[in-house]
Amino acid sequence: MPYLAPVTTVAPIIGRHLKGNLLRESPASGKFHLKSVTSNHLLDSREMLRSLALGGAWLLLWRLAVLMEYAPHASIWFPPAGLSFAAFLILGLRALPVVMLCSLIATFWVDDLYQMQQSWVQLAYTGVLFGAAHSFSYYCGAALLKQLIRRSFSDALPKIILSFLILGTLSSLLAALTGTQVLAGSGLIEPQDAGAIWLPWWIGDMAGTIVLTPLFIGLLSWRYPLIESWLGGLDFQRSGEGMYGFLSKLLISTSLLTLTMLLAAKFRYSEVSFAVFFLIIPQMWIVYTESAFRAALSLAVFSILTAIWVAALSLMDFALVYQFAICVISASAYFGLAVPVLTAHNKQLRELALNDSLTKVASRLYFFERAEQEVARAKRYGHPISLLVFDIDHFKQINDQFGHTAGDSALIAVADTISKGLRQSDILGRFGGDEFLLLLPGTALDKASETAERLRQALQAVKVDGTRHFLSGSFGIVQIEPSEDFQEAFERADKCLLKAKKAGRNQIFSDQR
User: Fold this and answer.
1) 90 and 11 in contact (C-beta within 8 Å)?
2) If residue 221 lies in a helix (H) or strand (E), which one and from where to where?
3) Is 0.70 surpassed by the pTM of this model?
4) What does DSSP say about strands 435-441 and 427-432: parallel, antiparallel, or unpaired?
5) What confidence tens digit (pLDDT) does each residue in 273-293 have?
6) CA pair distance 393, 66, nearest whole angstrom
């Protein structure tokens, strides 16, 4: 990660491109007229401010990286690389002007810091080459990642994370290889030195890219909320939970890091420096218990503090160890982010499979699955078990007269009313439309009939929302016999329901073999 010509300005939003020509010929008059200067040709002031803010952030991060340099043109970690990758990912080529400008500024700044006494022509030439090399490297990686994201399904978060880690690593490698060649070609380093510089340069850029790109994406997602739709369910919005718990965890993590670094400085054994890898445990604790943004923020704090301690405690001999630790811990943490997202997706899929989406009672598939299990258990222990099938009388008329919203409300009200009158062991499900199923384990036909009558009366007290229409229901009841399976019992109960409807509705019919 060069400090010589940091060409990776994570170029912020440089304002909108000018559209069209200022003058346009009028077909009717043959004359030219001005288009709306305000709407089409003036850079939006807010966009300009954002561009300046992002450019300033890039230069500030670059200066911070220079302070932590441990080898020529290489720092423990190079934050502008992550900012560049995030900017190209979100802004595309709109980030390019800011990157190039920051590259030029940083090149002249390097000359001033290190008293290299290069001519301004040489510095400008080097800055442009660095800008091109750095921008090309991170733009290519960001563009490929964006294409992969757009082709991925919404639940492809592990694939997105793996793609980011691979492309971020390759982009950093390309930036290091081209950057060292630019330095050698411009005469700022000896050609034979390029082979010794590219590795620490690459690791530093890679650490900055892997650690900080997600944080910068999170920050930009507040301005561009559609970014979250790319991320497979990953939510970078700020958590609504209190900060006390997060700050406590962050304090524990940073305290352990500080202790580890102090021990490494005292004993100066390489084995002690490897203890930093154990700090993945508190980082994963934060990942699993906090929002994605807070996890990214925690990793950023961890990497910054690591770089500060390496410089402050003169641990440059172990710099590569800490660089790899930053990369490995960050990569593991980002894969850890997929766990709560996948858990949430699995929970949602489970709810869709088990529960009816409207009434929240058991779905048809799940009800039949549970019913088969309960019937088998009842047969095994010789317990009675009964099945009720019921529907709402004249439900089609409710939809036709009051609308489908009222019909949906009626179904929800029926499910709620019936559920309140059931035991914990009873299973209520929706067969489809306005037809419901109720399994009563341990209940014989006579008790099931009493339950049906109680539920029928309860339904008569349910009124359709926004109307004066009260509901009623028709019931079919059977006791499942040891000689039949559940499907046969269901068909018998359904025939009883048809008889109840033909007999005038709001009635109960039962059948016992």
Assistant:
1) no
2) helix 194-223
3) no
4) antiparallel
5) 999 999 999 999 998 888 878
6) 78
